[in-house]
Design a protein that fits this description.
Oligomer: single chain
Helix content: 10-25%
Largest sheet: 7 strands, mixed
Shape: globular
Number of strands: 11
Length: 203
């Protein structure tokens, strides 16, 4: 079971620091959560440095699934990207939804080393550092609260609700510290679980 409450204090503090509101980067609403309107501010809030292009020295992919009462929640395209920059190109994914990429060189910083291209749930790390990014950094960039017991507005999640490669992640541990290493599958389950918890990324 879960209850809903306002987004966690840390995100509210980030909103105050960066001048964000519910419309510009703080997901203070129920799922699904869109990509925020202030992606590069949230990139910096996550402790990451936006760049003018993708850096592929360290290039790995993780996958994130989110389920609420057994229904999949979309992880949006364009997390960690200023999709309004002309250097960020718009493409159509196979399912007809928008995808963003093809960056050669933006005129100013436009992309985080941690980002999404499309809404497939694939999380891209494209950086000059081999230090893995963390799940908490992605959620900060997304503008969605993530704690031991809350995901966005959904709180008091007591039973195992985070799974890594199909195995329950201990409730006592902080999911924000999960490393986004290559081909890692992360599933977040709120309320009724799906029939099967994904154990592999499926790409």
């Amino acid at each position: 079971m879960f209850r809903m409450r306002p987004a966690c204090t840390s995100l509210l503090a980030a909103a105050a620091i960066f001048g964000l509101s519910a419309g510009t980067g703080l997901a203070n609403v129920l799922a699904p959560w869109p990509a925020p309107a202030s992606p590069l501010q949230l990139t910096r809030a996550a402790g990451l440095t936006p760049e003018r292009k993708e850096t592929l020295t360290h290039h790995v992919h993780s996958h994130l699934d989110i389920f609420i009462n057994a229904r999949a929640v979309r992880v949006p395209a364009g997390i960690g990207k200023n999709v309004r920059d002309r250097g960020v190109h718009l493409f159509k994914a196979p399912d007809g939804t928008n995808a963003y990429g093809g960056i050669r060189l933006c005129r100013s910083v436009c992309i985080s080393p941690l980002h999404t291209h499309d809404d497939s749930g694939i999380i891209h790390t494209e950086s000059a550092s081999s230090v893995p990014n963390r799940l908490g950094q992605l959620f900060t960039e997304w503008g969605v609260a993530l704690t031991r017991t809350c995901v966005g507005h959904y709180c008091h999640l007591t039973r195992p609700h985070v799974y890594v490669d199909g195995k329950p992640f201990a409730v006592a541990n902080d999911p924000r510290g999960i490393l986004l290493t290559d081909r890692k599958e992360i599933a977040i389950v709120i309320g009724r679980p799906p029939k099967k918890i994904p154990a592999t990324p499926g790409f």
